[in-house]
Amino acid sequence: MSSHLSFQGDKEFRQLLILSILSGKSIIIENIRHLEDDIGLTDYQVSLLKLIDELTNGTKTKLNETGTQLLFSPGFIIGGEIKHECCQSVPLGYYLEVLVCLAAFSKKKFSITLQGITHGFGHPNVDTIKHVTMHYCKKLGLHSAELQINKRGYPPQGGGEVVFSCNTLKLVKPIHWLDQGKIKRIRGVASCSRMSPATNPRVIDASRGVVNNYIPDVYIYNEHLKGALSGKSPGHSLSLYTESTTDVILSCDNTAIKQMLPEDLASTTTYDLLDTVFAGGCVDGTHQHLVLLFMALTQNNVSSVRLGPLTSYSVAFLRNLKKFFGIVFKIKVEKVNSEESGNKKGLGSTLVLSCSGVGFQNMNRSMT
After folding, report:
1. Rounded to whole angstroms, how far apart are CA atoms 105 and 87?
2. Is the peptide bond before 156 cis (omega within 30 degrees of 0)?
């Protein structure tokens, strides 16, 4: 058992699988939800393991009888064309965040069709992934990364479908993202399915009523779907993102809970976006782990990025990067000058993280 890395609990389940596959190191996860009434792996975690098994060759997974202990021995990422029906307990963003981290290091280009809930809670919805995550992927060298939304599906019954396609990389180039720039425009997508056509205009008007006080260039797309393209359940959501003069994109999204007014959805999401901008950085909290992963895997050169406050997920990710790859990040706190023009109240501090990559090479990539 000494050849395996051991972990407790499933709070970092996805990142442990990602790092295990990329490093080639086997892991044991013990005491998985062992104090819960329904102990062991959840249905969506089992679904993720099945998806990984389809994407890879040689992966071995062993669960004990109660499902509270998992032995995971990674194989090679093959990729290719795959169709997977996801669990209805979590949105597709739960799976897509894993696929985005693995796609660059596959043998074949990814063309993954996922079916399930496109807009949910706790994970980015498909609009944010399409417009923001794919933008980050292109900046990281994945120039053909694309997410196609065929159908939208809201909880609880879902019915959505997306296709994620992405090229592979041989090497990861160093990253230097330090200049936040200034916000030049705000874009977004207001979508609803199986609801009144008046829902989206109410969301858009309420959101613009807030952000137009700060910037005039605001455009929020109205997507109202009907019939087979609208999924099986009614629902509405809002995804917003800012674009800066230095090509920095910061995002925020929310899906309406039951009986939530369109104006309340717009207000919550818009002020969340303003909080994200206030926090600063060249990467928002949702995508911090993706950039940190690529920084760790670059060639033997120093990479650096400016971030706002680290999320708990990112803190855990930094610790696990050290366990799997031996990578240690240097973190420097930089205070923003409160007397700077346009910053009368002061934006506080940002973090500059830097590290020297491990020189990772994609040995799975086809030589043809």
Report:
1. 25
2. yes
pLDDT digits (tens, 9 = 90+) for 183-197: 999 999 999 999 999
Q: Decide: 238 and 200 in contact? Cβ < 8 Å.
A: no
pLDDT at residue 184 in the model: 95
Contact 129, 166 (CB under 8 A): no
18/5 Cα distance (integer angstroms) = 14
- Sorting pLDDT into bands at 50, 70 and 90, what band is 225? confident
Q: In this structure, are residues 252 and 277 in contact, taking their beta carbons and an 8 Å threshold?
A: no
Query: pLDDT at residue 50 above 50?
Result: yes
Residue-wise DSSP of 13-33: HHHHHHHHHHHT--EEEESTT
DSSP 38-91: S-S--HHHHHHHHHHHHHEES-EEEE-TTS--EEEE--EE--EEEEEE--TTSB
pTM: 0.93
Mapped onto helix, strand or coil, the DSSP state of residue 116 is strand
Pairing, β 302-307 against β 176-177: parallel
The dihedrals phi and psi of 18, each to the nearest 5 degrees, come to: -60, -50
pLDDT surpasses 60 at 235: yes
Q: How far is CA 321 from CA 52, 54, 206, 293, in A?
A: 20, 25, 42, 8
d(CA 134, CA 63): 34
**pLDDT at position 55:** 95
- Please state, in angstroms and rounded to a whole number, the distance separating the CA atoms of residues 270 and 303: 32
What DSSP character marks residue 310?
P
Quick one: which of 236, 71, 89 has its CA closest to 156? 89
Torsion sign (Cα): 45, 121, 283, 167: positive
Two tokens, residue 190: 């207001």
User: Other C-beta atoms within 10 Å of 207: how many?
Assistant: 26
pLDDT of residue 1: 40
Provide φ and ψ at 35, rounded to 5°: -100, 0
